[in-house]
Amino acid sequence: MLDNKEFEDRSLLIVGGAGFVGSNLAVKLLEHNPRKLTIVDNLLSSDVSNIPDHPAVDFVFGSITDDEILRKLPEDLDYAWHLSCYHGNQSSIHDPFADHENNTLTSLKLFERLRHSNSLRKVVYAAAGCAVAEKTFDDPTATTEDAPVSLYHDSPYSISKLIGELYGNYYWTRHKLPIVKARFQNVYGPREILGAGRWRGTPHTVWRNVTPTFIWKSLNQEALPLDNGGNASRDFIFVEDMARGLMACALNGETGGVYNLASGVETSILELATLINEMTGNPTPPDIKPARDWDRSGKRFGSTEKSKSMLGFEAKVGLREGIEKTVTWTRENQARIQTCIAQHDYFMARLS
Ligand SMILES: NC(=O)c1ccc[n+]([C@@H]2O[C@H](COP(=O)([O-])OP(=O)(O)OC[C@H]3O[C@@H](n4cnc5c(N)ncnc54)[C@H](O)[C@@H]3O)[C@@H](O)[C@H]2O)c1
């Protein structure tokens, strides 16, 4: 828990607050006794069960692109976090228009609405480290906040996450919207529910990220799929650290600034699979697959220097401890996850 009282009695907003990261942030913020926590979410990639049952929470079901919802946002907002997105790369390749509607227009309309607020102290935007990382399969260097940004991207998701940053910069420079951009590395942990939300056209509606997919398959003693032999690497950050980082951005981030929220540790997908198989006692050997044809992202991890010195933020939970907590949560929530997976059975059966 942060040791200050800045969020106490404040009016807070999380757009996308039913989602994986958003709901973890909501739980952490509620520990600080806010006056009100408004959550706007259309449940496109999340389950309503993720919304904390708490008297301070006001859940608004719908899209943040809806003018009526925007108009009715509280007038006394102190802090806002914009975490809504069209999840994720593969879904956006399948349906770039849905990505535009839920990943680009969301940022534009929200920022345009919030610029008229007189009470806002900070707006934190969930940016994506993958959109700025160098594309390499050689030894990577830590991606810093001032890394050059390519004009060539592998998915509409990657493009729209960057557009959110660009709109954020515009609304900061032009309208003094107090925005802080938080660039996420690969987040994992409790409350990431496989299959949560609506069918988005590909099996990645269910198998939405590497860590929950590996844990689920491993608990079911299935082979873990290793694209390109698991040679790629990522910077895995536990979701409770991410929630603390998002709060630190709101408290200490310089308006207009950008900060990596990263562990700074590079882990290969093979190492991740090996750890999860070991922890769950899965005897089935991994399924070695060729590289994904759209994915050039290779190896990457984030630099933690700026967020350490400027935000006072450092990830605390190591991968082994974080995976252990996530395995325990997955075991405890097996029925809930199974229900979300099963709602896509009809479409999944037709794809196989
Ligand atoms: N999880 C990661 O590893 C990661 C990495 C990089 C960036 N991010 C960013 O962090 C944010 C949170 O990611 P997450 O993993 O929690 O994803 P998530 O899919 O669990 O959460 C996104 C939430 O946004 C909601 N949403 C989608 N469209 C909406 C709309 N039009 N109006 C209102 N709500 C809408 C979804 O229903 C969902 O609850 C996203 O912006 C994502 O791009 C996440």
What does this structure look like?
The chain has twelve helices and 13 strands. The strands form four sheets. The protein has a seven-stranded parallel beta sheet with strand order 3-2-1-4-5-6-11, with helices on both faces. A two-stranded parallel sheet has the order 7-10. Helix 1 crosses helix 7. With 352 residues, the protein is α/β, with parallel strands linked by helices. The chain has helices at residues 20-30, 67-71, 89-94, 96-114, 156-175, 210-219, 239-252, 269-280, 305-311, 319-332, 334-342, 345-351, and strands at 11-15, 36-41, 57-61, 79-82, 122-128, 179-184, 186-188, 225-227, 233-234, 236-238, 258-261, 267-268, 287-289. Helix 1 (20-30) links the parallel strand 1 and strand 2 (36-41). The mean pLDDT is 95. It is globular, with a radius of gyration of 19 Å. Helices cover 38% and strands 15% of the residues. It has a domain at 11-192 and 236-264 and 298-317: Rossmann fold, CATH 3.40.50.720. Bound molecules: nicotinamide-adenine-dinucleotide. The site of nicotinamide-adenine-dinucleotide (NAD) has 30 residues, from helix 1, strand 2, helix 4, strand 5 and strand 7.
